[in-house]
Every structure is written in C-alpha cells, then in structure tokens.
Design goal:
mainly alpha; 3 strands; 186 residues; 10 helices; single chain; globular; disordered C terminus
Length: 186
C-alpha cells in the first residue's frame, strides 16, 4: 500500500480536532498531538493545524525516519501495521514489536541471528526480515502481522488496566486499530 493512501486513511480515522479530558496527549488535530506539532515548529492553535502539515509529519517522522519504507518493499501489509502502530504507540515500540516477533520466530537462532530490541529498523532487522520471508514464503508476512497485532492488543489492555482513564479509549483502540473492517461492519 502506498504511503499517501496510508496517511489519508489515518487522517480520516483520527478525525479533526479532539481535546478529550482523559487523553494524556492533550489536544490533537488529524491525530497529531500538540507536543508533536510544537516539536515540528507549529506555533498556532491546534484547532487550526493544517492537514498538509500532518501529512508531511506522518511521512517524515512515522514512515521514513523509522525506515518502515524499507519494510514496505518486502512486506507492505506489515509496514502499514507498523506505521499505524508507530503513530499510535511510538515508532520505537512498533519496530520493537517486529524485532521481538522476528527473534521469537527464528528457531533459536538457527534460521538467522537474534535481533537486539533497540526499537530501530536497521540492517540487522531488515536482514532478519528478508531471511524470515525467504524461509516462510508468502504466508510469512501474515504471521508477522498477526504477531505484531497480538502485541499491540496486549499493550492496549495493559494501558487500560494500569490507568483506568484509558478505558475510555480501549474499545476504540481495539475496534479501529486491530479489527478487520470487513468483520465489524465498518
């Protein structure tokens, strides 16, 4: 899937301006928190944060910088999941999920070396992904996708358990971030 399409879908899912009192991220527009917008140089009111700025930020900070584009060359559905996870949980969390899955699926190092969980897609992570996909074939991407989604779901549950205010978001996280749109009627 093309990054432009992923960004459009993300912005549609995130919606416009939101300032939910239980959200530690504070005010957001197009899914971009005020802290992230300010760090990128935006000085205006969050209600007025331009969609074009959000799109540019998503491409640079959440696609290119974490090297999800390198994953997309090999496994586009997995890259799309990592992108969305990175926006929602942080790119290092998303990359770490992939690294954990690849290491757990390497047959105790027989297929390829373990990967350090550094939260960065570097040459070793890419090499492990290539080896995994070569060994597992076309189904390999699906298995990695399921592993990342499982870790993501567990993290959402843990966030709600650790901070009861996050229960306000749990259903939406699970429905909008994990559920197959064909299965839940969206």
């Amino acid at each position: 899937m093309e990054i432009d399409t992923l960004i459009e879908e993300l912005i549609a899912r995130e919606g416009g301006f939101v300032d939910h009192p239980a959200d530690r991220g504070g005010a957001t527009r197009w899914g971009v928190t005020e802290a992230v917008a300010r760090a990128a140089g935006y000085r205006g009111a969050m209600r007025d944060y331009p969609q074009s700025a959000a799109s540019g930020l998503y491409r640079a900070r959440y696609w290119l910088a974490p090297r999800f584009d390198a994953v997309a060359e090999r496994a586009p559905r997995l890259a799309a999941e990592l992108f969305d996870t990175g926006v929602n949980m942080g790119t290092s969390v998303a990359a770490g999920f992939l690294q954990r899955a690849l290491t757990a699926l390497n047959h105790n190092g027989r297929d390829y070396a373990d990967i350090a969980f550094d939260g960065r897609i570097g040459p070793r992570t890419v090499a492990a992904l290539d080896a995994f996909l070569d060994i597992r074939g076309s189904r390999g991407e699906t298995i990695l996708l399921k592993a990342v989604e499982a870790m993501r779901g567990e993290r959402y549950l843990r966030l709600a358990e650790q901070r009861p205010a996050n229960e306000a978001f749990l259903y939406g996280w699970l429905a909008n971030r994990l559920a197959d749109p064909k299965e839940d009627g969206r």
